[in-house]
């Protein structure tokens, strides 16, 4: 349910949150649970009205960071600023933050209207205003007329919308969401991803979202904070993170990547030549590497192509001769596992379309890739 803000006057719930939300600054945040370092020196800034997602595997520290922003966990060290005001030791009910949990936390004995009205009642808002605001947010989440139902009478998607309605009814300037779509089926989850994105655009408040679902983060976010082992690995917009990962973890966690271990032959004009399995690959360079240094090259499966197919270019500078190990039909594409003579395996995804020939296991083939789609990444 929404956290409660005693600092906001009762009448504030009737006012618009305005065209933008609050700025949020995370400054050298640490959180330890006895000997376990759950969050380690995490720092990043969130712009007013931004949709930012903390993405990472279980145990990466993303939810712990969110709980510290909400006020449910106190940092071991560091500070959190909301609109330049330090709040690390401020109790949750004084932060004016809305929150949606993974299990929605709806009160089963209350109607939809009573669930949504709860944060307003805690703020001692008058009944007429409460009734009006409840109906307004039901319109916003596209559930008008559901006010007299109970949570047990709602589908999972409807419960999620009610949880959102309760979190925004008092016009918070920051909304936190902890994997709110995790319990839904794939089709409904995809629909609600777009609904939440629309809601963010309509409200203009700051959204801070937590998920372990890479596709969800790419679809919904203005920027993504990739976390692992309690630390921030990289921050960027979805295209930047997907096309320009800094290290092997980001390249493997966001989408799928092929990795080639090799040695730098030369470096010039932002391009490094890497010796890999008896062949050379030209790749967008990584700062700090010199000739003779070990290097890791990352290529996305969809960036590899067979010469002659519509998406390929025979002028592509990177060429590998490989053997087809496995070919799988997956509807809109064929997924190939290929191997070099040295045994390095890679995945190639080829779009399924008329006129594109298929290849069979055991077949000797040549694959190509552009330099711009080939990147040297940090090993860790």
Walk me through what this model shows.
The protein is α+β, with helices and mostly antiparallel strands. It has two domains: 10-243, Rossmann fold; 256-377, OB fold (Dihydrolipoamide Acetyltransferase, E2P) (Beta Barrel), CATH 2.40.50.100. Helices cover 22% and strands 33% of the residues. Strand 1 and strand 2 form a beta hairpin. It is elongated, with a radius of gyration of 25 Å.
How do the strands and helices of this protein lay out in sequence?
Blueprint: E1 24-33, E2 36-46, E3 51-55, H1 62-70, E4 77-82, E5 85-86, E6 97-100, H2 112-122, H3 127-140, H4 156-168, E7 174-178, H5 186-203, E8 206-211, H6 214-220, E9 223-228, E10 231-236, H7 238-243, H8 248-253, E11 258-268, E12 271-276, E13 279-284, E14 294-299, E15 318-329, E16 333-339, E17 345-351, E18 364-369, E19 374-377
Parallel strand pairs: 3-8, 3-9, 6-7, 7-8
Antiparallel strand pairs: 1-2, 1-4, 4-5, 9-10, 11-12, 11-14, 12-13, 14-19, 15-16, 15-18, 16-17
Helix pairs in contact: 2-3, 2-4, 3-4
The helix/strand class is: alpha+beta
The CATH superfamily of the largest domain appears as: P-loop containing nucleotide triphosphate hydrolases
Approximate shape: elongated
| Percent helix range | 10-25%
Q: Count of helices?
A: 8
Strand content: 25-35%
Average pLDDT, rounded to a whole number, is: 90
């Amino acid at each position: 349910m929404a956290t409660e803000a005693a600092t906001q006057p009762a009448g504030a719930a009737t006012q618009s949150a305005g065209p933008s939300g609050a700025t949020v600054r995370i400054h050298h945040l640490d959180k330890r649970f006895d000997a376990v370092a759950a969050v380690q020196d995490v720092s990043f800034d969130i712009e007013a009205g931004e949709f930012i997602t903390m993405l990472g595997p279980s145990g990466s520290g993303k939810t712990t960071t969110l709980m510290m922003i909400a006020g449910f966990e106190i940092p071991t060290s560091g500070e959190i600023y909301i609109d330049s005001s330090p709040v690390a030791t401020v109790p949750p009910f004084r932060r004016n933050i809305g929150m949606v949990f993974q299990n929605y936390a709806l009160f089963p004995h209350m109607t939809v209207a009573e669930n949504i009205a709860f944060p307003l009642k805690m703020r001692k808002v008058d009944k007429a205003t409460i009734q009006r605001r409840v109906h307004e947010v039901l319109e916003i989440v596209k559930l008008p007329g559901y006010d007299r139902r109970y949570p047990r009478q709602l589908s999972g998607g409807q419960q999620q919308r009610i949880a959102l309605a309760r979190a925004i009814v008092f016009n918070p300037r920051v909304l936190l969401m902890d994997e709110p779509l995790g319990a839904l089926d794939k089709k409904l989850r995809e629909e609600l991803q777009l609904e939440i994105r629309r809601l963010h655009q309509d409200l203009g408040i700051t959204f801070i979202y937590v998920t372990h679902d890479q596709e969800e983060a790419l679809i919904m976010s203005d920027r993504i904070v990739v976390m692992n082992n309690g630390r921030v690995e990289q921050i960027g917009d979805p295209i930047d993170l997907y096309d320009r990962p800094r290290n092997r973890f980001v390249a493997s966690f966001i989408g799928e990547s092929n990795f080639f271990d090799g040695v730098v032959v030369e470096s010039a004009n932002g391009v490094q030549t890497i010796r890999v399995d008896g062949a050379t690959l030209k790749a967008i360079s990584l700062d700090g590497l010199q000739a003779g240094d070990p290097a890791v090259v990352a290529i996305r499966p969809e960036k590899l192509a067979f010469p002659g197919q519509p998406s390929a270019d025979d002028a592509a500078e990177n060429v590998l001769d490989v053997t087809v190990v496995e070919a799988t039909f997956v509807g809109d594409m064929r997924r190939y596992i290929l191997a070099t003579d040295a045994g390095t395996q890679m995945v190639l995804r080829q779009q399924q379309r008329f006129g594109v020939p298929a290849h069979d296991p055991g077949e000797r083939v040549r694959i190509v890739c552009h330099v711009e789609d080939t990147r040297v990444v940090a090993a860790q």
